[in-house]
Amino acid sequence: MPRFAANLSMLYNEHAFLDRFAAAAQDGFNAVEYLFPYAFSAHELQQRLQDHGLQQVLFNAPPGDWDAGERGLACLPGREAEFRDGFAKALDYAAALSCTRVHVMAGIAPAFADVDVLQTSYEANLHWATEAARTAGVDVLIEPINTRDMPGYFLNYQEAAHQIVQRLAAPNLKVQFDLYHCQVMEGDLGTKIRHYLPTGRVGHMQIAGVPERHEPTVGELNYDYLFEVIDAVSAQCSWEGWIGCEYRPARGTVPGGTAQGLDWLHAWRASRR
What we know:
The structure is a single chain. The chain starts with a strand and ends with a helix. Helix 2 (42-51) runs parallel beside helix 3 and helix 3 packs parallel to helix 4. It has one domain: TIM Barrel, CATH 3.20.20. By secondary structure, it is α/β, with parallel strands linked by helices. An 8-stranded parallel beta barrel has the order 1-2-3-4-5-6-7-8, surrounded by 5 helices. It has helices spanning 20-26, 42-51, 80-97, 115-134, 158-168, 179-185, 189-196, 223-237, 257-260, 263-271, and strands at residues 3-7, 31-33, 55-60, 101-103, 139-142, 173-178, 202-207, 242-245.
């Protein structure tokens, strides 16, 4: 049965960030993810997890200067020292939060850059990161992201991500399979789930409605069908990952807006009893 984690960067925005843990637990979530933990001390976050019986299942390594438009450093030549310092910080947080997955963002490809040079930098940084993370028991995740939401992002397609994982052959390098991004770029989600999930290369999944990135029930995708596919394939291949709910509630920051949009989750859980 799929296990769902609340993405606290997108859900429960009617609350201050540290109050979102309680809100997620109240709605029945057992796990959380979010983009970045670094605005808070690891102790503050660990206390929220402990107080509300939650598991931390994913967060991102530092992305560079987010406010200036940077979306990761891994593919950028000349930024290796900054990348390593940031990833070391991420591992410190992962240890404190008992989190075994860290997403490394590839970055925005500079205009007119040599793609082969970027690819070499990307894979070299990923190789270093997997070595650093291995002794900590942490998986390094890479995620194809669509070019509509993030123009210029270096990694966009599932097959490209899986080829990198196969090429580097690090046991703790995995693909973060976001169904929203995949639908925007490629479609054919049921087939891709059946193809990629049994490979052992998928470390995490995420969901959102397409195209507005609202609740899974809003938009063009039939998530009831996709959850059935994930359920069936997971049973066959013993995949036990989490599915992050990384969407923007349609009711936005209206008090109770996130909870009011969780009918899809309650209905799915009720159907599996």
